[in-house]
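USER: My hope is that you can spare some time for a protein that puzzles me. I am handing you a single protein, as its sequence and its fold in token form. Walk me, if you will, through where the backbone shape changes along the chain. The protein I mean follows directly.
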Amino acid sequence: MAQRYPDFFIAGAPRCGTTFLYDVLMAHPRVFMPLIKEPHFFAPDLVFRQAVTDRDAYLALFKGAAPNELVGEASAEYLASKAAARAIAGVRPQARSIISLRDPIERIVSMHSLKVFQGTEQRALNDLVREDLDAGPASGHQPLTRARRYTLGSLYGQQLVRWFEHFPREHVLVILLDDLSASALGTVNRILAFLALEPFAEMPTADDIKLSRKAVRKAQRKAIAVEDQSRLRASLASVRRKLVSGNGNGGGSKAAAASSTSDDDESAEEQSAAERRSDRRNPRKKEELDPAIRAELQERLLPDLELASSLIGMDLVTRWWGSRPLVEVPIRTLEVAR
């Protein structure tokens, strides 16, 4: 089977529900998601310890995808990368992109909480934000400090400008984490409509996702043996299709199918996914921003959030921060960010 690049990308932003979307879309009968989330192949300007940088290794992630399946990929830092949109458009100009956003300040708080939990951040949140505010607005001549990384990831306006330079608006779907939290099924089905796929009748369960991961692993192992691959995917489809038809029996039959593979067969990737789901079920207490620092950070981020609002046609400032006048910010004022 010919190698293929993804048909769609979950491009960001970090801490905005991208892992949830990756897990759920994997369970759709017409979607193939690789076992690895965050390969970041198209973001060579960013440094990731586990990035997939070799082209053949990257394309191998999608071996086993059936011809009638849409291939997807999720790398949450693509949105912040200055290279990703251009690189993806160079090989897949018709690709569709799903971008999830949340209150940019809450994203910073959540990212700091995650890094503290992972043991990669020891400094207090207020100290980091204070340092970044004291350094002044970002420019191309300033070093990229640890403190500044938190803020840059929340400059949605600059990031969307780059994305819309390389993809038509109708090929980019922007959703909000608020909506995903309030109505997961409705928001996910909106994504499926954007991808021209059948909607879910019910949300996939953890067992559905586990079954899908094991099926992908088996399909990749047997990608050379087409007849085995077809048999496996046909068997899987009969189970996964219940999610779309609404004729499932809850999680029972899916759990039984998932348990047919021994525990020894679980990969490090699946264990990592289980840890992420456990992390979502056991939220950590986040450090609170000092009110004065929060207010100053709002003023710093306001022009960019107004730009993002104008780009997607939604008043994000009012939605997230209360009633504020929406100011049109010319795209040319942010040319330095492209």
